[in-house]
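Students often ask why we bother predicting the structure of a whole assembly rather than each chain alone. The short answer is interfaces. A chain on its own may look different once its partners are present, and contacts between molecules only exist in the joint model. In this exercise we take two input lines together and write out one structure for the complete complex. Read the inputs first and try to guess which parts will touch.
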Amino acid sequence: MLRLCIRSLTLLLALSLFTFLLSEWSPGDFLSGLEASPEYSQSTAAAARQRLALDRPVAERYLSWLHSAVTGDFGISHAYGMPASELIRPRLWNTFRLNLTATTAAWIMAFWLGSWAAARRGGRLDAGLRQIFALLLGLPEILLALFGLWLFGSSPLLPYAVLALGALPTLAIHIRYSVGGALEHDAVRAARAHRITGVRLWWSYVFPLAAPPLISLAGISFGALFSASLLVEAALGYPGLGSLVLDSIQTRDTAVVAAAVALSGLLLMAANLSADLARRALDPKLRSR
Amino acid sequence: MTLRLDGVSVCYGRHEVLASVSASVRPGDWVVCTGASGSGKSTLAHAIAGTLSSSARLSGAVRLERTPVAAIWQEPSSTFSPLRRVLDQVGDVLAARGAPRAQARDLLFRTGVDGKQDAYPHQFSAGQLQRAAIARALAVRPALLVADEPTSSLDPTTEAGIIELVDDVRREYGFDVLWMTHRPRPLRPWATRWWQIHDGVLNAAAPDPTHEAEEKGRPIPPRDSAPLVLRAAGLWKSYREPVLRGVDLQLYAGRTTALVGESGTGKSTLGRILAGLESPDAGELERFGPVQLVMPDPATALNPRWSAAEAVAEPETIRGIPRRQRRQTALRWLERLQLPAAAADRAVTGLSGGQRRRLLIARALVAGPQALIFDEATNGLDPALRDETTRLIRELQREFSLAILWITHDYETLPGFADEVFTLAAGRIRQVSHAPPLHP
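Now the answer. The structure tokens for the assembled complex follow.
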């Protein structure tokens, strides 16, 4: 457990450092755009550069950002002149809410469809459903988003629907196979032979046996959804992290980008960690260790 | 009549595993049904217990005139959910028929599972878990108990205990027994009638097979006549815990040794050590000729980017033999293993599971081995394909006088030609028999 926390922390550090370095290595910085305009004199530029500490070496800037991250404000955004954390917090919350809702909706639908197909495995409906999902699997969310825009116009529900539909095929296919495998498990066949049926069979035998890979998938799929979400948000104008991050990357607002990357990293790690803990709680063999 | 079977046939795809079986179990019966591995015993047990897999097609009538039926199986560890306490799983059966869950404790106590009532399946020994399985069977108040090789992975003492327990509770609860086994002798005192099953055909009035076997005596093939190919003595191997604790094993040219053990007992480790892919921590290992391992999973043992011919000729590639010659070798072996010539240039991923398995065998043979180790060679193949693969291996063994070690977790997949059968449990090897009994 402790080792897991240390590993997560190291990863977060590496992630933020990498973001910083990437921004350092790409040409130009926050002021490059301004400097290009003729009414902006060399001396003002130098002063601004000094004020924003852009003349300091990258190591120093990173450390000072790290210090501010620990104290909670994640550096000052050059573009907005306010702490990155204040800028990000409401948007991160919006993104998180969007993802949580979409993921929950996707899981509920996928569970229903996947189990339904698994119970009819080998049949024509099962085969048909799997074909459809295999097709949908190839559709990127951004395409779904554009398609949705064209079909329904801008709607506050659209980002939710797009993300949920985008996640659905992967989840449904995995659930179909896990539940199908569990239904063929000797323990389920034995339970059936001893007349355990219905809700008791599904909740006490089939679902728990199908669960371990699905729990891991839940952790991972949240991450996949999250990255899809950034693009979809930007495309649909949802007030989440997506458009802020894209803008900040373009304006070279390093503190905001690093903060967004670190905070979403934290969120994903929390998701994976919960998945790990859930798996441990489910399996008595892992628990007793 | 407790059970009446009227022309019961079971097919997996086109392969018929049971052919029009008609027989009956009468009140008071303890029918013992014998038959070699793969003869259809398990399928019959599943057909009666209603646990045939969804890919099986059943025709004819299984008439249970007294119900319900309960069942115990060979591997109790797989028939309990690993995620739920054994007590709860017995309780589930009680609850399903409206009886109080609390009776589960009494049932477990009755079958001799003491002190472990709150434990999960992995905390039980195989014998104890089989006792718990009997408790679960009792929980339905059965009229008929179908037992499918329930003692074949147990040692003789534990086996005797289980058989006596079934006899005890049978009197108490008043149910009849249909017991499937490939090793009838321990059942002799209890059997009221014998069935024999061979290639899916049932003889419901078979003579007592133990009687016959005793008269004939089973000739033990002379070992000294066959040259020793591999000798292992006192092999130890530990990962976090000891996996092998002093394993002795000899392989002889032209002879087949079968090694059965549950998963995680170190069978595959032993195979890898004998083939030289891993080294033992202690012990002696002598190879008197090349030894090749045929991996269990053909999907991961072959480079997916290679064609079949390239895969087969891999040992020659390593030896630096020129391309054209390699191709000749590959084609020859593909033909010998009855793979279509057209398969040579197909990617290995384009072949069927059975074909890939034969490809692995061909690759092993190209290396010119004197001993072949098959790790789960026919695992996951349907019965027809399994038989075909086994037959092919037997032919190759005869042709090249190969020593074969056949590693499996499933008695069902034991080849009929095994000369001796060992089990691997708790890191040690024990001989079960010189030959699978009653093999036709």
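Check your guess against this: Confidence is low (pLDDT under 50) at residues 214-221, 436-440 of chain B.
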